[in-house]
Amino acid sequence: MIPLNTPDELGVHAAPSAAPASAAPDKKIEGRAPLQLAWARLKKDRVSMISLGVIFALILIAVFASLITDKLIGHAPNVQYRDEPNGLQSNGLPFGPNGTFWLGTDSLGRDILSRIIHGTRVSLLVGVAATSIAVTIGVTVGTAAGYLGGAVDTILSRTMDVFLSFPFLLFAISLVSVYQPSLKISIFVIAFFTWASVGRIVRGQVLSIREKEYIEAARSLGAGDIRIMAIDVLPNLIAPVIVYATLLIPTAIVFEATLSFLGMGVVPPTPTWGNMITDSVSYYEQLPTFLLFPSLALFVTTLAFNLLGDGLRDALDPRAARVLARK
Amino acid sequence: MGRFIIRRALFGVLVLFIISVAVFVLFFVVAPGDPAANFVGKNPRPEQIQQAKEKYGLDKPVPQQYALYMGRLLKGDLGYSFRNEEPVRKTLQDRLPITASLALGAAVVWLLIGIPIGILAATKPRSLRDRGATVFALGGLSMPTFVLGLLLSYVFFYIFRTKLNIDFFPGSGYIPLKENPLEWARHLILPWFTLALVSAASYSRITRGSLLEVLGEDYIRTARAKGLSERRVTYRHGLRSALTPVVTLLGIDVGGLLGGAIVTEAVFGLGGVGQAAIQAVFVGDLPVIFGTVLLAAFFIVVANILVDIAYALLDSRVRLA
To answer: Is the sign of the CA dihedral B206, B210, B215, B219 positive or negative?
Structure first.
């Protein structure tokens, strides 16, 4: 069993909700689609299911963030508590974890737990939105390049090469500074610098799909290029794209946190894990927990997505198991 | 081979040209506000702005500004910082050794960590040590560089110094190699391990995956059938071709880092190219931003070309198109 540094409540609460009954245990023999088979394989992998549970819990936390912080904890994320309850010690330092502020307070007397919970929103939103945009563009461009070939392929592939040659963090920071930091610009910048990597992978896949007999069959039936790409090629890309998208989400989340850490992400006072970590740096000698908790939130989130992506890769690609069996 | 290299080099020049235009357009056309306002202080008089414009050539049309800039660039002149009037070229020359020390040293460390872990995992797939390697790899992949850097500096700089009275790991600063090699290494240990632990993860995965694939090949079975020891089969026959993707990744990573290890440099206050770039972005110092972006892109492009050449040399199946 892989030890997960997961707070117990995350894994335990969500585990039941993460397993919807998709393949009913039925005695009669029935055909199952490749995705159903993959799901059945995934369900047997404990690590993947725990990761899925953590991700589910994170989504719930993000959706109900205000409800949780206002009703359950009683401290709004952006309120600077100065008296009753006071979030700052008499010498002006923030508090460590205590009965009132479970995870302590930050330099302005705000509740760290509330801020971490609200930070989930930014991280997940940026991760999912940027990945969706990147995957949409990447799949479109990659499919067109791989399927159409010739001059189209040359132009699109070279374009992707150019995008991959950008010093992306530096360029992203420059872009953000020009347009003023905001949530939208973070999402845009991250998608802008990741779609080409999706495109390159998809192109490679399409190159081999293109040579399959069923494509030839579709063409001999008189199907046009667009129709073949949408109906015959695209469904065969689902497996690699799901895996890649799952692995791209944590990359995007870390990218956003890095932008926030460098002061070029979502603008304060909106809490993000990245800007909380930046705030904590000046206090980490007195209050290591201030640095630790947002870091842990970030690490657990990215780890859950990476573990799930890894499990999905094995579940969706039965070939991987065969490579091992050959030895 | 010669034609291949020339073609790749020409494309590299084209990429650099496109990136330079993109940066130029970004800062001189799209950017809101007057670039000249960046270096006259707050509430300037109109004639101050005018002076600044004339001084830095910002009163000319944009394409002409670009042409002037590129003209000077081809002579090796990157202009002068808007902030401290220092030649950009000197800034980059002064800071490049710092970034290079960081990147190359870290690369050595991550290869020394990543490849052995990958080999251990691949030679006994599905074993406990393979699982351990997977945990290490996924943990490393999930760890943001700045988080690891801060944690390492908290433990090894702060805790060691205050709680254990071991004042060995400096939390920041850089000592040039020429001045004192030992101090140079001591100041770079934490930054090296920060970068290396994060990257070693991908190297162990890639080594494992590629070695597993190679060990399933027919020629490995032949080697085993000849009665060679498992050690010899793995290291002499398997590892050689399994390391091709590692070389590819190494080239791209090092190329990317030489243009500035922004995050690590920021965490440990090393003052390399990456930190120069960040500072320039914050104050809108266009010539420095331009210089650092171009330098970074240059390293990436060169690394890509070298990787392609190395790939062709290592793997005879690759045809040079």
So the answer is: negative
* CB nearest to B304's CB, from A165, A284, A310: A165
Q: Is residue B151 predicted with pLDDT exceeding 60?
A: yes
Q: Using one digit for the tens of pLDDT, what is the confidence trace for A246-277?
A: 989 999 999 999 998 888 888 888 889 988 88
By the CB < 8 Å criterion, does B210 face chain A? no
Mutate to test the interface with A, among B7, B143, B146 (most CBs of A within 10 A): B146
Contact B216 A326 (CB under 8 A): yes
A256 with A248: CB under 8 angstroms? no
Residue type at position B50: Q
- Give the A:B interface size as CB pairs under 8 Å: 124
Spell out the residues 6+ positions from residue A263 whose beta carbon is closer than 8 angstroms to its own.
A181, A275, A278, B282
Interface pTM, i.e. ipTM: 0.85
**CA gyration radius for chain B?**
24
A88 forms beta bridges with: A94
Per-residue pLDDT band for B284 (boundaries 50, 70, 90) equals confident
Residue B86: what residue type? E
| Chain A residues touching residue B204 (CB < 8 angstroms) | none
3-state secondary structure of A109: coil
Which residue, among B313, B306, B239, B272, has the nearest Cα to B101 in the 3D structure?
A: B272
Q: Do B147 and A167 touch (CB under 8 A)?
A: no
Whole-prediction pTM? 0.85
